[in-house]
TrEMBL record:
The keyword Membrane applies. Residues 3-115 form the PIN domain. Signal peptide: none annotated. The lineage of its organism: Bacteria, Pseudomonadati, Pseudomonadota, Gammaproteobacteria, Pseudomonadales. The keyword Cell wall biogenesis/degradation does not apply. InterPro entries: PIN-like_dom_sf, PIN_dom. This is Twitching motility protein PilT. Pfam families: PIN. Keywords: Membrane, Transmembrane, Transmembrane helix. The chain crosses the membrane at residues 79-106.
Length: 126
């Protein structure tokens, strides 16, 4: 099982080291997504900033759902008006099309959706 790590988990890890994330990284089980890296770039990743973003970008990528696939998922599963935005649903869709992947997020609404699809990583709370 590989874990697509959401921005919320990375941001928490940057503030206070998350031992579960560290263990997943050391066992090469963390997946990334370009939208997560871009969202992290909007914030303040640890110094050296460019190196941190580059290192996260080098992790194994999850399959990327296209916008068309995301829109189909939204309509088929009635994922509208649930408080999740495009990036959240794109990560959900990408996890769904990545064999053996689960999604780790601290965002309650996204976690609830991931649970609905049985792809939520329920690692220890930090």
């Amino acid at each position: 099982m590989n874990v697509l790590v959401d921005t919320s988990v990375w941001a928490g890890h940057f503030r206070h080291r998350n031992t579960t994330l560290t263990k997943l990284l050391l066992s090469d089980r963390v997946l990334t997504h370009p939208m997560v890296v871009a969202e992290l770039a909007c914030g303040t990743p640890p110094s050296p900033r460019a190196q941190t973003l580059s290192d996260i970008g080098l992790l194994e990528p999850a399959n990327q759902a296209s916008i068309a696939e995301v829109r189909i998922l939204i309509e088929q599963e009635k994922l509208y008006v649930l408080g999740c935005g495009l990036m959240d649903i794109a990560l959900l869709a990408s996890t769904l099309i990545t064999p053996g992947a689960v999604l780790w997020t601290f965002d309650k609404r996204l976690a609830k959706l991931a649970e609905r699809f049985n792809i939520h990583y329920s690692g220890p709370k930090q």
